[in-house]
Design brief:
316 residues, single chain, 17 helices, 71% helix, mainly alpha
């Protein structure tokens, strides 16, 4: 009996050691402080980069419309307000609902019955709320009308041409116009991006010979262009810009059309996702579904960063 008790005690001791070994590592105060410092430094770098992009954006616009000092000051204020009034992600979406939507989409993709209604349900769950986006854009309205009132006819014409081509993205986006070729929006860029993404997907799901080429051909049909307001809305706003007094109704109508376009663009690539699903076997679908649960449709079409796991990572 004593020998049996010794064996049981030894077993419990070893089990306890194993559980401690497998327990997640605790974050020390030094590690947490280092993590917080990195976050602060990252935000500082982001602000500096954003300020640099805003200056570049201001220089491009002033070169297009021949700014005076007064107009440059007004334009700088308007650009800054377009950044400040943008809501954070948390204001546009609930992270819990997004996580559930990605999980449901992953389960659907892993099954044999993946279909358009499941994609539409995902888009509905994760798209930004139209009222919030509209409210954000309308906060720019007073500054935009003030800026327009200080333009001369020649400058209004230059702004109208920008508006016809890009809507108001010349104001709200610090990025230069999309480039063609390479990894831009042209056919060459689309094919290069598709090959790069297909290679990454095949590494994750172990493609059979020559399947990577087929996957690349399907992904080459993805529409990666930035969403622009409809041409009719851009033309109408440009006509309003050419007048002596910019109509508030014209700007509001443009914002409404832009929001409608934003909410509708999510499903434009659904046929590509369905075609990709159809060419994969069950094991490949299961492998990709794990990434979908983490990153949504970004896991299939490229873009976005993989979240880091671990005590200081974001995990799932």
């Amino acid at each position: 009996m004593p020998k049996l008790l010794v064996i049981i005690a030894a077993g419990l001791l070893l089990a306890g050691c194993g559980s401690k070994k497998n327990a997640p590592a605790k974050v020390t105060e030094d590690e947490r402080a280092l993590s917080n410092e990195r976050k602060v430094n990252g935000k500082k770098r982001t602000r500096k980069f954003q300020e640099k992009r805003q200056v570049e954006q201001l220089d491009r616009l002033c070169a297009d419309i021949d700014c005076s000092d007064e107009i440059r000051t007004e334009l700088r204020t308007l650009i800054e307000s377009s950044y400040v009034t943008r809501p954070r992600r948390g204001e546009l979406r609930d992270r819990g609902s997004h996580r559930e939507a990605r999980s449901a989409l992953a389960d659907a993709f892993a099954s044999d019955t993946f279909a358009a209604p499941q994609l539409e349900a995902f888009h509905t769950a994760v798209r930004p709320d139209g009222e919030v986006v509209a409210k954000r854009d309308e906060t720019m309205l007073p500054g935009l009308i003030t800026f327009h009132g200080k333009l001369e006819p020649k400058q209004r014409e230059a702004v109208a041409l920008l508006t016809e081509a890009r809507g108001l993205s010349w104001l709200t986006s610090a990025r230069p116009p999309a480039r063609k070729g390479q990894l831009g929006t042209g056919p060459a860029g689309a094919q290069r991006r598709a090959k790069r993404t297909a290679k990454r997907l095949c590494e994750a799901m172990t493609c059979v010979p020559e399947q990577e080429t087929t996957v690349a051909a399907v992904l080459g049909k993805l529409d990666m262009r930035r969403a622009e307001a409809p041409a009719v809305a851009r033309t109408a706003l440009a006509a309003a810009v050419r007048t002596d007094v910019l109509s508030q109704d014209a700007v509001t109508a443009f914002f409404a059309a832009s929001v409608k376009q934003t909410l509708a663009r999510a499903s434009r690539n659904d046929a590509v996702w369905l075609a990709l699903h159809a060419m994969l076997d069950s094991e490949q679908r299961e492998a990709l579904s794990e990434n979908i649960a983490e990153r949504g449709l970004q896991a299939l079409g490229g873009g976005g960063r993989v979240r880091h796991a671990g005590p200081l990572g974001r995990g799932r």
